[in-house]
Amino acid sequence: MSDRDNLLEKAYKTNDLTKEEIIYLLDNMTSSDREGLYSYALKTKQAYYGDKVYLRALIEFSNICRQDCQYCGIRASNAKVERYRLTPEEILACCDQGHKLGYQTFVLQSAEDLWYTEEILVALINEIKKRYPGVAITLSIGERSTETYQRFFAAGADRFLMRHETASQELYEKLHPTMYFEDRRSCLSALKDLGYQVGAGFMVGLPGQTSADLADDLRYLKGFQPDMIGIGPFIPHSQTPLGAEKCGTIEDTLVMVALARLLIPESLMPATTALGTLHPQGRELALKAGANVVMPIITPASVRKQYALYENKICGDDHPEDCRYCIERRIQSVGFQVDLGRGDSLISCNNG
Ligand code: SAM
Q: Which residue of 164, 198, 240, 309 sits with most ligand 1 atoms within 8 Å of its CB, as the best mutation to test the pocket?
Protein backbone atom coordinates (compact mmCIF):
# COMPACT_ATOMS: atom_id res chain seq x y z
CA MET A 1 0.00 0.00 0.00
CA SER A 2 1.22 3.52 -0.80
CA ASP A 3 1.49 6.27 1.85
CA ARG A 4 -1.63 7.78 0.29
CA ASP A 5 -3.56 4.50 0.59
CA ASN A 6 -2.58 4.32 4.26
CA LEU A 7 -3.74 7.87 4.88
CA LEU A 8 -7.05 7.34 3.10
CA GLU A 9 -7.64 4.17 5.08
CA LYS A 10 -6.80 6.05 8.28
CA ALA A 11 -9.30 8.80 7.38
CA TYR A 12 -11.98 6.18 6.70
CA LYS A 13 -11.36 4.19 9.89
CA THR A 14 -10.67 7.02 12.36
CA ASN A 15 -12.45 10.03 10.79
CA ASP A 16 -9.34 12.05 11.43
CA LEU A 17 -6.21 13.34 9.70
CA THR A 18 -3.65 15.89 10.83
CA LYS A 19 -3.08 19.10 8.90
CA GLU A 20 0.21 17.71 7.55
CA GLU A 21 -1.47 14.49 6.43
CA ILE A 22 -4.18 16.43 4.58
CA ILE A 23 -1.58 18.61 2.85
CA TYR A 24 0.41 15.53 1.84
CA LEU A 25 -2.71 13.94 0.34
CA LEU A 26 -3.79 17.08 -1.51
CA ASP A 27 -0.32 17.57 -3.00
CA ASN A 28 0.21 13.98 -4.08
CA MET A 29 -3.17 12.53 -4.97
CA THR A 30 -3.47 10.56 -8.22
CA SER A 31 -6.71 9.91 -10.09
CA SER A 32 -6.85 6.38 -8.71
CA ASP A 33 -6.37 7.74 -5.16
CA ARG A 34 -9.31 10.04 -5.82
CA GLU A 35 -11.52 7.13 -6.83
CA GLY A 36 -10.52 5.33 -3.61
CA LEU A 37 -11.31 8.45 -1.59
CA TYR A 38 -14.75 8.88 -3.19
CA SER A 39 -15.61 5.28 -2.50
CA TYR A 40 -14.64 5.59 1.20
CA ALA A 41 -16.71 8.80 1.40
CA LEU A 42 -19.71 7.11 -0.21
CA LYS A 43 -19.48 4.16 2.19
CA THR A 44 -19.28 6.58 5.12
CA LYS A 45 -22.31 8.56 3.93
CA GLN A 46 -24.26 5.32 3.50
CA ALA A 47 -23.29 4.10 6.97
CA TYR A 48 -24.60 7.31 8.57
CA TYR A 49 -27.46 8.40 6.28
CA GLY A 50 -28.16 5.46 3.96
CA ASP A 51 -29.13 6.30 0.38
CA LYS A 52 -31.32 9.26 1.28
CA VAL A 53 -30.81 12.68 -0.26
CA TYR A 54 -32.62 15.53 1.48
CA LEU A 55 -34.17 18.37 -0.50
CA ARG A 56 -34.23 21.99 0.69
CA ALA A 57 -36.20 24.62 -1.22
CA LEU A 58 -34.03 27.69 -1.77
CA ILE A 59 -35.62 31.15 -1.95
CA GLU A 60 -33.13 33.85 -2.97
CA PHE A 61 -35.12 36.82 -1.72
CA SER A 62 -32.84 39.83 -2.24
CA ASN A 63 -29.64 40.63 -4.14
CA ILE A 64 -29.13 44.03 -2.49
CA CYS A 65 -25.89 43.87 -0.52
CA ARG A 66 -24.03 46.10 1.91
CA GLN A 67 -20.87 43.95 1.66
CA ASP A 68 -18.26 43.97 -1.07
CA CYS A 69 -16.81 40.45 -1.28
CA GLN A 70 -14.22 40.44 -4.08
CA TYR A 71 -15.53 37.24 -5.68
CA CYS A 72 -19.26 37.86 -5.58
CA GLY A 73 -21.32 39.06 -8.54
CA ILE A 74 -23.87 40.83 -6.32
CA ARG A 75 -21.27 42.76 -4.28
CA ALA A 76 -22.22 46.34 -3.42
CA SER A 77 -19.77 47.83 -5.94
CA ASN A 78 -21.18 46.03 -8.95
CA ALA A 79 -23.30 48.78 -10.48
CA LYS A 80 -24.31 46.59 -13.40
CA VAL A 81 -26.55 44.21 -11.44
CA GLU A 82 -30.26 44.78 -11.67
CA ARG A 83 -31.25 44.73 -8.00
CA TYR A 84 -34.41 43.17 -6.54
CA ARG A 85 -36.04 42.57 -3.21
CA LEU A 86 -39.02 40.23 -2.67
CA THR A 87 -41.68 41.46 -0.28
CA PRO A 88 -42.67 39.24 2.66
CA GLU A 89 -45.90 38.44 0.75
CA GLU A 90 -43.88 37.35 -2.29
CA ILE A 91 -41.66 35.19 -0.08
CA LEU A 92 -44.77 33.60 1.46
CA ALA A 93 -46.11 32.90 -2.04
CA CYS A 94 -42.82 31.06 -2.80
CA CYS A 95 -43.24 29.02 0.40
CA ASP A 96 -46.80 28.19 -0.60
CA GLN A 97 -45.65 26.91 -3.97
CA GLY A 98 -42.73 25.06 -2.35
CA HIS A 99 -45.03 23.44 0.19
CA LYS A 100 -47.31 22.22 -2.59
CA LEU A 101 -44.25 20.66 -4.24
CA GLY A 102 -43.64 18.73 -1.01
CA TYR A 103 -40.70 20.60 0.49
CA GLN A 104 -40.31 20.52 4.28
CA THR A 105 -37.39 22.93 4.54
CA PHE A 106 -37.33 26.49 3.26
CA VAL A 107 -33.93 28.14 2.97
CA LEU A 108 -34.35 31.91 3.02
CA GLN A 109 -31.17 33.27 1.48
CA SER A 110 -30.22 36.81 0.58
CA ALA A 111 -27.42 39.25 0.18
CA GLU A 112 -26.77 41.34 3.31
CA ASP A 113 -29.83 43.56 2.99
CA LEU A 114 -30.82 45.45 6.14
CA TRP A 115 -34.17 46.51 4.63
CA TYR A 116 -35.28 43.20 6.17
CA THR A 117 -35.28 44.40 9.75
CA GLU A 118 -35.48 42.12 12.76
CA GLU A 119 -39.23 42.92 13.00
CA ILE A 120 -39.93 42.08 9.35
CA LEU A 121 -38.04 38.78 9.51
CA VAL A 122 -39.51 37.74 12.88
CA ALA A 123 -43.02 38.33 11.49
CA LEU A 124 -42.13 36.33 8.36
CA ILE A 125 -40.70 33.41 10.34
CA ASN A 126 -43.80 33.39 12.60
CA GLU A 127 -46.11 33.38 9.60
CA ILE A 128 -44.26 30.55 7.81
CA LYS A 129 -44.36 28.41 10.97
CA LYS A 130 -48.05 29.17 11.46
CA ARG A 131 -48.99 28.31 7.86
CA TYR A 132 -46.81 25.20 7.56
CA PRO A 133 -46.38 23.57 10.97
CA GLY A 134 -43.53 21.09 11.04
CA VAL A 135 -41.41 22.66 8.31
CA ALA A 136 -37.85 23.72 9.04
CA ILE A 137 -36.68 27.26 8.32
CA THR A 138 -33.07 27.86 7.39
CA LEU A 139 -31.74 31.41 7.28
CA SER A 140 -28.77 32.43 5.17
CA ILE A 141 -28.68 36.21 5.41
CA GLY A 142 -25.18 36.99 6.66
CA GLU A 143 -23.98 38.81 9.72
CA ARG A 144 -26.33 40.25 12.37
CA SER A 145 -26.04 40.72 16.13
CA THR A 146 -26.34 37.79 18.55
CA GLU A 147 -29.52 39.39 19.95
CA THR A 148 -31.08 39.44 16.50
CA TYR A 149 -30.09 35.82 15.85
CA GLN A 150 -31.65 34.98 19.22
CA ARG A 151 -34.95 36.63 18.23
CA PHE A 152 -35.04 34.79 14.90
CA PHE A 153 -34.43 31.52 16.76
CA ALA A 154 -37.16 32.30 19.29
CA ALA A 155 -39.54 33.05 16.39
CA GLY A 156 -38.92 29.57 14.99
CA ALA A 157 -35.86 29.65 12.71
CA ASP A 158 -34.21 26.24 13.00
CA ARG A 159 -31.01 26.44 11.00
CA PHE A 160 -28.50 28.98 9.75
CA LEU A 161 -26.08 28.72 6.86
CA MET A 162 -23.01 30.92 6.95
CA ARG A 163 -19.93 29.71 5.18
CA HIS A 164 -16.69 30.63 6.89
CA GLU A 165 -15.49 31.07 3.24
CA THR A 166 -11.83 30.31 3.98
CA ALA A 167 -9.93 29.40 7.14
CA SER A 168 -6.97 31.54 6.08
CA GLN A 169 -7.20 34.86 7.87
CA GLU A 170 -4.90 36.51 5.33
CA LEU A 171 -6.94 35.31 2.36
CA TYR A 172 -10.23 36.12 4.13
CA GLU A 173 -9.12 39.69 4.73
CA LYS A 174 -8.00 40.15 1.12
CA LEU A 175 -11.32 38.85 -0.21
CA HIS A 176 -13.60 40.70 2.23
CA PRO A 177 -12.62 44.38 2.42
CA THR A 178 -15.79 45.22 4.41
CA MET A 179 -15.71 42.26 6.82
CA TYR A 180 -13.58 40.76 9.60
CA PHE A 181 -12.37 37.18 9.92
CA GLU A 182 -13.05 37.10 13.66
CA ASP A 183 -16.60 38.46 13.23
CA ARG A 184 -17.54 35.63 10.89
CA ARG A 185 -16.27 33.02 13.32
CA SER A 186 -17.95 34.75 16.27
CA CYS A 187 -21.27 34.71 14.39
CA LEU A 188 -20.89 30.99 13.71
CA SER A 189 -20.11 30.23 17.37
CA ALA A 190 -22.98 32.44 18.59
CA LEU A 191 -25.44 30.70 16.25
CA LYS A 192 -24.34 27.32 17.54
CA ASP A 193 -24.57 28.41 21.18
CA LEU A 194 -28.11 29.71 20.57
CA GLY A 195 -29.19 26.24 19.46
CA TYR A 196 -29.38 26.62 15.68
CA GLN A 197 -28.31 23.78 13.42
CA VAL A 198 -25.41 25.59 11.78
CA GLY A 199 -23.86 25.26 8.34
CA ALA A 200 -20.30 26.43 7.66
CA GLY A 201 -18.27 25.87 4.52
CA PHE A 202 -15.83 27.27 2.00
CA MET A 203 -14.93 27.81 -1.63
CA VAL A 204 -12.30 25.74 -3.41
CA GLY A 205 -9.89 27.27 -5.94
CA LEU A 206 -9.90 30.83 -4.64
CA PRO A 207 -7.02 32.86 -6.10
CA GLY A 208 -4.01 32.42 -3.82
CA GLN A 209 -5.53 29.52 -1.84
CA THR A 210 -2.99 26.83 -0.89
CA SER A 211 -3.23 23.17 0.17
CA ALA A 212 -2.38 24.34 3.70
CA ASP A 213 -5.37 26.73 3.60
CA LEU A 214 -7.66 23.89 2.50
CA ALA A 215 -6.26 21.65 5.24
CA ASP A 216 -7.06 24.46 7.71
CA ASP A 217 -10.63 24.57 6.34
CA LEU A 218 -11.08 20.88 7.14
CA ARG A 219 -9.43 21.16 10.55
CA TYR A 220 -11.64 24.16 11.41
CA LEU A 221 -14.75 22.17 10.42
CA LYS A 222 -13.57 19.16 12.39
CA GLY A 223 -13.24 21.33 15.51
CA PHE A 224 -16.48 23.26 14.98
CA GLN A 225 -18.63 20.20 14.13
CA PRO A 226 -21.19 22.02 11.98
CA ASP A 227 -24.50 20.33 11.22
CA MET A 228 -24.15 21.28 7.57
CA ILE A 229 -21.11 21.84 5.35
CA GLY A 230 -21.34 23.72 2.04
CA ILE A 231 -18.34 23.29 -0.25
CA GLY A 232 -18.33 24.72 -3.76
CA PRO A 233 -15.85 25.77 -6.42
CA PHE A 234 -14.97 29.45 -6.79
CA ILE A 235 -16.40 30.62 -10.15
CA PRO A 236 -15.28 34.05 -11.39
CA HIS A 237 -17.78 36.77 -12.26
CA SER A 238 -16.59 39.21 -14.91
CA GLN A 239 -17.94 42.29 -13.08
CA THR A 240 -15.78 41.66 -10.00
CA PRO A 241 -12.10 42.28 -9.23
CA LEU A 242 -11.52 38.50 -9.60
CA GLY A 243 -13.21 38.33 -13.02
CA ALA A 244 -10.06 37.23 -14.86
CA GLU A 245 -9.10 34.49 -12.37
CA LYS A 246 -9.44 30.74 -12.95
CA CYS A 247 -12.34 28.63 -11.66
CA GLY A 248 -11.84 26.06 -8.94
CA THR A 249 -11.75 22.58 -10.49
CA ILE A 250 -14.35 19.86 -10.20
CA GLU A 251 -11.72 17.35 -9.01
CA ASP A 252 -10.37 19.59 -6.26
CA THR A 253 -13.90 20.39 -5.06
CA LEU A 254 -14.97 16.74 -5.01
CA VAL A 255 -11.83 15.82 -3.08
CA MET A 256 -12.71 18.41 -0.43
CA VAL A 257 -16.34 17.18 -0.27
CA ALA A 258 -15.14 13.60 0.19
CA LEU A 259 -12.53 14.50 2.83
CA ALA A 260 -15.13 16.56 4.73
CA ARG A 261 -17.47 13.54 4.71
CA LEU A 262 -14.70 11.36 6.17
CA LEU A 263 -13.64 13.88 8.82
CA ILE A 264 -17.14 15.03 9.88
CA PRO A 265 -19.22 11.97 8.97
CA GLU A 266 -22.42 13.06 10.73
CA SER A 267 -22.83 16.31 8.80
CA LEU A 268 -25.32 17.10 6.06
CA MET A 269 -23.53 18.17 2.90
CA PRO A 270 -25.16 19.77 -0.14
CA ALA A 271 -24.17 18.95 -3.70
CA THR A 272 -23.91 22.65 -4.50
CA THR A 273 -25.38 24.64 -7.38
CA ALA A 274 -21.86 25.92 -8.13
CA LEU A 275 -20.72 22.31 -8.73
CA GLY A 276 -23.69 21.83 -11.05
CA THR A 277 -22.66 25.00 -12.89
CA LEU A 278 -19.05 23.92 -13.29
CA HIS A 279 -19.89 20.47 -14.68
CA PRO A 280 -23.17 19.09 -16.12
CA GLN A 281 -23.00 16.13 -13.71
CA GLY A 282 -21.32 18.06 -10.88
CA ARG A 283 -24.07 17.51 -8.33
CA GLU A 284 -24.41 13.80 -9.15
CA LEU A 285 -20.63 13.38 -8.79
CA ALA A 286 -20.79 15.14 -5.41
CA LEU A 287 -23.57 12.76 -4.27
CA LYS A 288 -21.26 9.87 -5.19
CA ALA A 289 -18.42 11.52 -3.22
CA GLY A 290 -20.27 11.96 0.07
CA ALA A 291 -22.83 14.77 -0.37
CA ASN A 292 -26.41 14.05 0.74
CA VAL A 293 -28.46 17.23 0.27
CA VAL A 294 -29.64 19.14 -2.81
CA MET A 295 -31.12 22.63 -2.70
CA PRO A 296 -33.51 23.14 -5.63
CA ILE A 297 -34.16 26.82 -6.33
CA ILE A 298 -37.75 28.05 -5.95
CA THR A 299 -36.98 31.75 -6.44
CA PRO A 300 -39.53 33.22 -8.87
CA ALA A 301 -38.40 32.93 -12.51
CA SER A 302 -38.82 36.72 -12.90
CA VAL A 303 -35.80 37.51 -10.67
CA ARG A 304 -33.72 34.31 -10.67
CA LYS A 305 -31.09 35.47 -13.11
CA GLN A 306 -30.44 38.55 -11.00
CA TYR A 307 -29.13 36.43 -8.10
CA ALA A 308 -25.93 35.92 -10.07
CA LEU A 309 -23.15 35.25 -7.56
CA TYR A 310 -21.20 33.94 -10.57
CA GLU A 311 -22.00 33.74 -14.27
CA ASN A 312 -23.86 30.96 -16.12
CA LYS A 313 -25.51 29.77 -12.92
CA ILE A 314 -27.73 26.80 -13.76
CA CYS A 315 -31.55 26.77 -13.63
CA GLY A 316 -31.86 30.49 -14.51
CA ASP A 317 -34.78 29.89 -16.88
CA ASP A 318 -36.47 27.17 -14.84
CA HIS A 319 -39.59 27.31 -12.72
CA PRO A 320 -39.81 25.74 -9.25
CA GLU A 321 -41.67 22.65 -10.48
CA ASP A 322 -39.01 22.06 -13.20
CA CYS A 323 -36.25 22.06 -10.57
CA ARG A 324 -38.20 19.79 -8.21
CA TYR A 325 -38.54 16.95 -10.73
CA CYS A 326 -35.24 17.51 -12.58
CA ILE A 327 -33.42 17.13 -9.27
CA GLU A 328 -35.40 14.02 -8.34
CA ARG A 329 -34.45 12.38 -11.68
CA ARG A 330 -30.82 13.31 -11.22
CA ILE A 331 -30.74 11.87 -7.70
CA GLN A 332 -32.36 8.62 -8.83
CA SER A 333 -30.03 8.38 -11.84
CA VAL A 334 -27.09 7.79 -9.48
CA GLY A 335 -28.96 5.30 -7.31
CA PHE A 336 -30.12 7.45 -4.40
CA GLN A 337 -33.60 8.18 -2.95
CA VAL A 338 -35.17 11.59 -2.44
CA ASP A 339 -36.27 12.21 1.14
CA LEU A 340 -38.67 15.11 1.56
CA GLY A 341 -38.61 14.98 5.38
CA ARG A 342 -37.05 17.71 7.51
CA GLY A 343 -33.75 15.85 7.46
CA ASP A 344 -32.16 17.11 10.67
CA SER A 345 -28.46 16.42 11.08
CA LEU A 346 -27.23 13.53 13.20
CA ILE A 347 -25.06 16.00 15.09
CA SER A 348 -28.16 17.90 16.27
CA CYS A 349 -30.01 14.65 17.05
CA ASN A 350 -27.08 13.38 19.13
CA ASN A 351 -26.90 16.65 21.05
CA GLY A 352 -30.47 16.22 22.16
N1 SAM B 1 -25.10 36.83 2.36
C2 SAM B 1 -25.14 35.53 2.94
C3 SAM B 1 -23.81 35.15 3.53
O4 SAM B 1 -22.87 35.93 3.46
O5 SAM B 1 -23.71 34.08 4.13
C6 SAM B 1 -25.64 34.45 2.00
C7 SAM B 1 -25.52 34.66 0.54
S8 SAM B 1 -23.87 34.50 -0.11
C9 SAM B 1 -24.07 35.29 -1.64
C10 SAM B 1 -23.82 32.75 -0.44
C11 SAM B 1 -22.48 32.11 -0.77
O12 SAM B 1 -22.21 32.25 -2.16
C13 SAM B 1 -21.26 32.68 -0.12
O14 SAM B 1 -21.14 32.17 1.17
C15 SAM B 1 -20.13 32.26 -1.07
O16 SAM B 1 -19.42 31.13 -0.57
C17 SAM B 1 -20.87 31.90 -2.37
N18 SAM B 1 -20.35 32.66 -3.53
C19 SAM B 1 -20.41 33.98 -3.73
N20 SAM B 1 -19.77 34.31 -4.87
C21 SAM B 1 -19.28 33.16 -5.40
C22 SAM B 1 -18.51 32.85 -6.56
N23 SAM B 1 -18.10 33.80 -7.40
N24 SAM B 1 -18.19 31.55 -6.80
C25 SAM B 1 -18.63 30.59 -5.96
N26 SAM B 1 -19.34 30.82 -4.84
C27 SAM B 1 -19.67 32.10 -4.56
A: 309
